[in-house]
Amino acid sequence: MPPAKKKPRAFDHARIRAAVTAQFGHVADAVRELTPEQLARPSGLGEWTVGELAAHIAWIADSLAAGLARPPAAVVELTAVEWPSATASLAGKISEAARETLAGAPLPELYERAATRMAEALEANTGARVLDLWIGDMALADFMVTRTVELVVHTDDLNRAAGTDIPIERQALAACTRLLADALALKAPGGSVEVRIPPFAVVQCIEGPRHTRGTPPNVVETDPLTWIRLATGRTHWAAALDEAQVRASGERADLSALLPLMS
């Protein structure tokens, strides 16, 4: 008999919505204090400057509101755990849309407008609302979980590029970590390797012998931010191992061929 299909992880929509709103607020507060020198620095993301990265983060909230302003779609086509693997083809289109939407306005104005629009749109819609999206139609509740990924990843990008110390909401960090861990398990199903990201996630992946009790023979363990950087291509597997940011034991405990999950 084939193994039972694992039930998708459930996320509390109200908590996720609060975490997204709070995280966007943390970034907005920090961006208002960035100096011209900081804004001109390279972001580490292609040719973007820190200022362009900051504008893109404002677009994340603005585009959510714009999506909720469109007529709803009828049927969900994409779930949250499928979203990471579907993003690569849209990078250029998203970048171009962000430039067109945000061109010309000062960053504080962009953030104020985006925060207001997002708050009003979320207040008017339930998690069951289906958004008509380029990437595939998604329930608002699932799409909000993906917003934790965008905001946590880019908050970390800003902190490293601009030398800021923007706080990361624990609920946002937890959701981001769990979603990317689940995406790994979806990409490489199996039970031969256990990936531990304390305190937020444990998943099993990769085909092969499944352990039944005791310490599994193949274990990968790391912290949430390192995992997020690995999953999004900010850190490479070999470098994380060399710097002892990842501990891997067992002959199958090599995730290099599976990472990044998105970039």
* Side-by-side strand order of the widest sheet: 4-3-5-6
Gross geometry: globular
User: How many DSSP E strands?
Assistant: 6
Structural class: alpha+beta
Mean pLDDT: 92
Number of helices: 10
Topology order in helix (H) and strand (E) letters: HHHHHHEEHHEEEHHE
Rounded to the nearest angstrom, the radius of gyration is 19 Å
Low-confidence stretches: none
Largest sheet: 4 strands, mixed
Q: Considering DSSP H and I runs of 4 or more, what fraction of the residues is helical?
A: 40-55%
Measured between the Cα atoms of the first and last residue, the distance is 37 Å
Structural summary, described in words:
With 263 residues, this protein is α+β, with helices and mostly antiparallel strands. It contains ten helices and six strands, in the order ααααααββααβββααβ. Helix 1 runs antiparallel to helix 6 (107-123) and helix 3 (50-69) packs parallel to helix 6. The mean pLDDT is 92.
